[in-house]
C-alpha cells in the first residue's frame, strides 16, 4: 500500500478538497514542487497554474489556482487561495478569461496581472486536455 498524506484545499468560498493523496504537484514562485508523504516542512507562495493531486497511481484530480500559498508538513499539505477552479470547470473559466483579455485589447493600458493570469489559465487548460486524452 502506498503512503499517503492529508491534503486540504481552501478558497475564500470554502473548502474545495479534503482527503488523502499520494503526491501533490504545485506551481510555486521558485518553480514546480513535487510533494510526497514525509516531505520536509515548507511554506511558499503559488504562481498561477495547476495544482495536481495523485489520489491513486492511475487517478488524478487537478485544480487551477491563480495565486495562493501552500504549507507542507510531513503528513499534511494545506493550500489557501482566493479562487480555485476545478479542472472540469476550466472550459467555462477560459471563456471568462478570454473575455477579460478582449475587453482590455481595445485599451492601451494592459494590466499585466490579468494577462499573466489568462495565460496561466490557457496553459492549465492545455495541460488538462492533454491528460484527459491519455
Throw out a few tags for this protein:
about 130 residues, alpha+beta, ATP Synthase, domain 1, 2 domains, five-stranded mixed beta sheet, five-stranded antiparallel beta sheet, 2 helices, 10 strands, about 30% helix
List the topology elements:
Elements: E1 5-11, E2 14-21, E3 23-28, E4 31-35, E5 42-46, E6 49-56, E7 59-65, E8 68-72, E9 76-81, E10 85-86, H1 90-105, H2 112-133
Parallel strand pairs: 1-9
Antiparallel strand pairs: 1-2, 3-4, 3-6, 5-8, 6-7, 7-10, 8-9
Helix pairs in contact: 1-2
What does this structure look like?
The chain is built from 2 helices and 10 strands; from the N terminus they run ββββββββββαα. Helix 1 packs antiparallel against helix 2. The chain has helices spanning 90-105, 112-133; strands at 5-11, 14-21, 23-28, 31-35, 42-46, 49-56, 59-65, 68-72, 76-81, 85-86. By secondary structure, it is α+β, with helices and mostly antiparallel strands. It has 2 domains: 5-86, F0F1 ATP synthase delta/epsilon subunit, N-terminal (ATP Synthase, domain 1, Sandwich); 88-133. The model has no long low-confidence stretch (mean pLDDT 82). Helices cover 28% and strands 44% of the residues. The strands form 2 sheets. It has a 5-stranded mixed beta sheet with strand order 2-1-9-8-5, with no helix packed on it. Strand 6 and strand 7 form a beta hairpin.
Amino acid at each position: 500500500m502506498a503512503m499517503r498524506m492529508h491534503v486540504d484545499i481552501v478558497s475564500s468560498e470554502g473548502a474545495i478538497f479534503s482527503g488523502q493523496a499520494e503526491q501533490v504537484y504545485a506551481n510555486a514562485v521558485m518553480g514546480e514542487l513535487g510533494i510526497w508523504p514525509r516531505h520536509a516542512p515548507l511554506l511558499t507562495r503559488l504562481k498561477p497554474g495547476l495544482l495536481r493531486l495523485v489520489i491513486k497511481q492511475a487517478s488524478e484530480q487537478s485544480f487551477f489556482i491563480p495565486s495562493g500559498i501552500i504549507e507542507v508538513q510531513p503528513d499534511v499539505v494545506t493550500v489557501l487561495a482566493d479562487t480555485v477552479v476545478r479542472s472540469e470547470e476550466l472550459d467555462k473559466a477560459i471563456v471568462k478569461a478570454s473575455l477579460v483579455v478582449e475587453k482590455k485589447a481595445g485599451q492601451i493600458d494592459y494590466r499585466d496581472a490579468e494577462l499573466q493570469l489568462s495565460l496561466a489559465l490557457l496553459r492549465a487548460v492545455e495541460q488538462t486536455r492533454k491528460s484527459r486524452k491519455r
